[in-house]
Write the structure tokens for this entry.
Amino acid sequence: MNRHPFSLLFGKEDLLLLRPEWRETMLLLAGILFLQGKAKVDGLFEAIIDHLPPAEASSARRSGINLIAAMAQELDVFGYQVPDPLQELRMSNETGKTQKKDHRFGGPWTLIKLDVLRQYLSAYTTALKKQAFELVYIDAFAGSGDFSPGSGESQQVGSVRIALDTPGFHRYCFIEQNSRRYRELEAIKQQHPEKQIELFRGDANQVLPDLLRTLSPKNWRGVVFLDPYGLNLDWTTLESIASSQLLDVWYLFSLSGLYRQAAKRMANVDEHKAAALDRCLGTEKWREAFYRKSRQLTLFDDPDIERFAEVDAMEQFVLSRLKETFPAVMKPLRLPREGAPLYSLFFAMSNPNRPAIGLAQRIAKHILEQA
Ligand SMILES: C[S@@+](CC[C@H](N)C(=O)[O-])C[C@H]1O[C@@H](n2cnc3c(N)ncnc32)[C@H](O)[C@@H]1O
């Protein structure tokens, strides 16, 4: 029988793992799984989220989210990064209803992001219609095609379906690591036999550079959408996109992931967090750009190093890094528009051709100004 690896924890009727007598075991389990690999812990958290009852049965839901938060805290010493959906789920717990089994993430800002993508894809395919290029859409963190925003709206179409609904692309490449979502993508592919859809199951940081090596800028142009939950896009992947010289890039960068990993006190940025920041920013220079010695020295302390850079400076740092890597980059759209900033939506172009840059910038600027 093909049972879920964590099915024992969930029981038949109620969620066994939420019982108080299981708490210590669950905290211990978090550490054991982490030592077997971060993906195992992520898998357990995802499974718990999938089993949570809807918001109406909110006490079990709250307990589940609190349990994940406690387990994640246990892993803090290893530099474990709490997945962004957890933070978003916390918000949705306070603000609204979500449906069981949906791919739940985001909020009103997610709809803005997807609307920007929808408008860009439509304008892009229209603008390139008469050119001889083959057009590819690549979704590197594809999801399942649909999702429910944490703010409680009903199910919405995600980036994959938005792209499939946009006429003009000759080829679609969807990369997804999660097996359940990947299966949903397989079902979507079957619903669209008329389209050339290629599915890749795995880590976008490995799959995407290999995929790009098969596309020649002589024949291909396209758009890549980078929509990870947190800081799990490596800078080397962005470099391989830049050197492809054929893709326009929409990248939803997790500002909240960045300011959580780059802790206020440098002493709290352990080697795992530092390595994650090196990977996602592609440089070690964030140390000097974000941190300096604190003036408030106590008599007995070693000089303490604190982060002075706040969210604007951190966003600016990412923008500068993108400008070092791509021939053209736009000022990002900060999301959500109100409250604590969570994301910056960046647009960058890898094609160095000046007229192509001019055209893409005009389209993107217009869309971002309206967003
Ligand atoms: C925010 S969701 C994407 C949502 C999608 N753009 C949409 O609009 O429906 C992020 C997705 O990336 C997947 N993912 C996370 N890490 C990944 C990785 N390293 N490579 C590929 N997919 C990954 C997750 O399973 C999740 O489905």
Observations:
- Residues 8-80 form one domain.
